[in-house]
What does this fold into?
Amino acid sequence: YPINGRPMIDYVVEAVKDSKYIDKIMILGHPDIQLNYLENEVDTLIYSNKPFSERIKFSILKLKSPRKIIFVCSDIPLINGEIIDSFVEICDKVEADVYFPIIRKENILSKYPETKRTYFTISEGTFTGGNIAIVSPQVVLDNIDLIADLFGRRKNVLKQVRVIGITSLLKYFFGKLSLSEIEEKAEKMIKAHGKAIIYSGVEIGIDVDKKVDLVLVEDVLGRRK
It folds into this structure.
């Protein structure tokens, strides 16, 4: 979507370029949406119309990075370099193979009360997931089928919880499922160390997938000018 006359991805590319920790930038686009105008803004621009998990695998193999990769969705135009850097710095203090941000519901609504998000409630509170992740490339390649499955369940919390077992599902129903239990179950599934990071940068939790969110980000970005 265009945001105030500018392609939404432009805001995200600008934020990634402003990060002091990102070495190389790759855009993996769909061939139906031409992004050639961004060729000089990033290191690599490739296209693929394959399923999500295959596109992820393709991009990792193409990048050939021995270091961790940060995935950033193209529909979170409210982020900036400072938000990305802050998340990287928090993750750098914790040893893990996969880092995924979660944001408290009250933090999002206190700043952007208009937004509509998918939330989940666990022992530590009510959260929504962020739209970036830091991962070790090999862990992703080793779990590509699981990633495809979870991506298909991404808008349904109950379907996601079912992946880690019926006991966890029952605990979730009664608000007794804890973050540490989720991490433990996930680690057994992916055979690697995963860490959910409770993060205060609420903008990474606001993806534009509804009309109300489009109106919100147009207003926020318009006022930033």
Strands lie at 2-3, 6-7, 26-29, 44-47, 69-72, 98-104, 120-122, 125-129, 132-135, 194-198. The longest strand covers residues 98-104.
